[in-house]
Write a structure and sequence with these properties.
By secondary structure, the protein is an alpha/beta fold. It has helices at residues 8-32, 36-39, 45-73, 75-99, 105-125, 127-135, 138-150, 197-205, 219-228, 246-250, 278-297, 314-321, 323-336, 381-411, 444-448, 474-482, 519-537, 578-582, and strands at 171-176, 207-208, 255-259, 342-348, 372-373, 376-377, 419-424, 452-455, 463-464, 504-508, 514-518, 562-563, 572-575, 594-601, 610-614, 617-622, 625-627, 630-636, 649-655, 662-665. It folds into three domains: 2-150, no CATH class; 171-543, 3-Layer(aba) Sandwich (Alkaline Phosphatase, subunit A), CATH 3.40.720.10; 551-665, Sandwich (Immunoglobulin-like). A hairpin with a 2-residue loop joins β17 and β18 (630-636).
Length: 669
């Protein structure tokens, strides 16, 4: 029967066809359904072609070549190896057929083996099957050509506007990512200047628009609306879809110092885009697509962990890791371009997830979001509180970076005379059981109501402007200040003009729909979120570590409390980061301040609060949560709680039935 196998050139064609049906065409379809995927990376047409060719041809041709090389030693070995490759390429196709049914792990594996074996037997025995695969090469080739031609990429060419700018006013425009206004507020609706001194300074010296709202729930449409003054139109975050924007408006007259991270609106005529090495870009594209593809084809019973969807793009996590370096470069450019007539634009991926920064700028390492499944918080309120805690700590560090920018402008004598805009593109929400980022009526204010501060040139005193501002008002405002007429119709209006009467906030969704809410309701919901935040965390710089029920225990020594002996059935907590805690270095960039533990024996009863002691002093309160059938704990402790060198962490169950708290040790000695 092996004599029925075709020549190796035809075998390569057959492997390519099977691979196309099983892998490359599903990957291409997945990307066609998410056109932003390539654009926000700044992928060029060359990137797209290289990626497509690698995905479509390299694995099957490599497999055919490997089998051919083996056949030089033994024809039988080469034939068998080829059939193994063919079966392996068929496996993803079979899994896709069984993924929706999912009869269970062992049944799925049995069906997979049976169908692959039957398909290989049919291929070897029947010439019609082989002929079908030979002629079927036309289908994946047409699909590949369609994908390469129709998939959008970043475009850096634009028509020059030649707009007449009357002044050479310096403009500094900072867009922060994923920051709701309520995160900055006290219970009385003011900026918490103790916790966020730089935002507090802007509130004292700039114009604050507390009723400002974004116009889109996601960055890739929210930021272009800021830069064009137009409501979202379904376009991609690239120059080809937004040729009329702030950069093309000022590019002929101004020096542009632009740091875009998720959009490509600045023409290469005026801006240099850093895309990284070509091979690195292709490798990253392939790795970013692999996980969601595997997640789509694998039945639930065969998954050993969770797989992100194509919408949960690791691109944002990667660029957030370079956010501090980007911000530092942005600040450094102020001293290198002291002349007027300069636009400094920075879109910072802070305080966007992944949350990993302490207020000092040190990182605590772990970036996983506990209690967060794809796009929504779970029902455990404690995990949403811990998520909010991590967010606020990262906002504190963002505030520190913002202060660095303001101080640099001040030292250079540029602060008073510049137009300084600090805004967020959208917010985030922390309601258990609700979406963190996708806007709903329940989280509308958290996503829509964003910080917006404008320090106008020579403005000496801060003021609060209650007008219903929108982020599309920023481009007309900049044009008004620098004295240029915007040569296209905008949906926004200059904030220097008379307030535009608006009774509702309007936010576009990723799916193209629009959600509206009366502004009065938005204000009430923002105020309610701020009050809820204050009830949990209090106010002030250091209060973010003071969460839990038995707050009077924080800062006290374990020796000051009554210890109870562990019972024979008491659960045991193992600290899973003992190695990092055993050797803390002086002034580390990464500090093990997020304590992680797992319950290994027994089960901690629901409602029991735990005390986390570091070196004999209670530094945090927490509660266990479930991961599958296992209980885990997480808690953040202040930096000052950790000593250089060895640190011992103990966990105690708290019993407060008497005036003196009784603690039951749960960690092993």
């Amino acid at each position: 029967m092996m004599g029925n196998l075709p020549r190796y050139r035809i075998r390569a064609v057959h492997l390519t066809v099977v691979w196309a049906f099983a892998v490359s065409q599903p990957v291409f379809s997945m990307l066609e359904g998410n056109p932003e995927f390539l654009v926000r990376r700044g992928s060029t047409r060359l990137d797209l072609v290289a990626f497509s060719v690698v995905v479509a041809f390299v694995p099957p041709l490599a497999a055919a070549a490997y089998a051919w090389l083996a056949s030089r030693l033994s024809r039988w070995v080469g034939d068998m190896l080829y059939l193994v490759f063919l079966a392996a390429f068929l496996a993803p196709l079979v899994l896709q057929l069984t993924a929706s049914v999912d009869p269970g792990r062992y049944v799925t594996l049995a069906v997979l083996l049976a169908l692959c074996a039957a398909a290989i037997a049919a291929y070897v025995r029947w010439r019609a099957v082989r002929l079908f695969l030979t002629f079927a090469i036309l289908l994946p080739m047409l699909g590949l050509a369609s994908f390469m031609r129709g998939t959008p990429v970043a475009d850096a060419s634009a028509t020059q506007l030649h707009a007449q700018v009357e002044s050479d006013q310096r403009v500094v425009f900072v867009v922060l990512d994923e920051l709701p206004l309520s995160s900055l507020l006290t219970s009385t609706g003011e900026i918490d200047a103790a916790r966020f001194p730089s935002f507090g300074r802007l509130a004292r010296e700039a114009t604050w628009y507390p009723n400002a709202t974004t116009v889109h729930e996601y960055t890739v449409a929210a930021v272009p609306s800021m830069l064009t003054g137009k409501m979202p139109n379904g376009g991609l975050p690239r120059l080809a879809d937004h040729p009329f924007n702030l950069f093309t408006l000022l590019g002929e007259s101004y020096s542009l110092k632009v740091h875009e991270v998720a959009t490509y609106l600045c023409p290469e005529t005026y801006c240099t885009h850093s895309r990284g090495a070509f091979t690195e870009r292709i490798h990253t594209l392939i790795s970013d697509v692999a996980e969601p593809y595997i997640g789509e084809i694998l039945p639930s019973s065969l998954r050993l962990g969770t797989f992100r969807s194509i919408e949960v793009d690791p691109f944002f996590a990667r660029i957030s890791f370079s956010a501090v370096a980007e911000f530092d470069a942005f600040v450094d450019e102020m001293s290198r371009s002291r002349r007027t007539g300069t636009l400094h634009f920075m879109h910072s991926m802070l305080p966007h997830v992944p949350w990993r920064f302490l207020p000092s700028g040190r990182q605590y390492g772990e970036i996983h979001l506990d209690g967060y499944d794809r796009r929504a918080w779970g029902v455990d309120p404690w995990l949403a509180v811990q998520g909010l805690q991590r967010h606020l700590l990262q906002v504190q560090y963002t505030d520190r970076l913002l202060g660095r920018l303001i101080d640099r402008l001040d030292r250079l004598g540029l602060y008073d005379g510049s137009l300084l805009i600090v805004a967020a593109d959208h917010g985030a929400s922390f309601h258990p059981g609700d979406r963190r980022r996708d806007i709903t009526e329940g989280n509308f204010a958290d996503i829509a109501n964003v910080p917006l501060f404008v320090k106008y040139p020579s403005q000496e005193r801060g003021r609060v402007d209650p007008r219903p501002a929108r982020t599309v008002d920023l481009l007309p405002t900049i044009a008004d200040v620098v004295g240029v007429e915007v040569p296209w119709r905008t949906d926004g209006a200059s904030l220097l003009g008379e307030p535009v009467p608006r009774s509702e906030a309007v936010v576009h969704r990723r799916d193209g729909s629009v959600i509206r809410l009366p502004l009065g309701k938005v204000r009430r919901h923002t105020a309610a979120s701020a009050r809820a935040l204050t009830r949990v965390f209090g106010e002030g710089f250091d209060s973010l570590f003071h969460i839990g029920t038995n707050l009077r225990l924080l800062g006290t020594a374990v020796a000051d409390h009554r210890l109870q002996a562990r019972g024979p059935q008491s659960p045991t907590v193992r600290i899973t980061m003992a190695d990092e805690l055993a050797d803390v270095r002086p002034h580390p960039a990464v500090l093990p301040a997020r304590i992680a533990g797992v319950v290994e024996e027994g089960r901690i009863a629901p409602g029991v609060e735990l005390a986390v002691a570091v070196n004999g002093r209670i530094e945090a309160l927490t509660s266990p949560y479930l991961v599958g059938d296992r209980q885990e704990i997480r808690a953040l402790v202040p930096e000052a709680a950790l000593n250089v060198g060895f640190n011992r962490v103990d966990v105690y169950a708290i019993d407060v039935r008497s005036r003196i708290a009784r603690l039951t040790p749960l960690t092993s000695p």
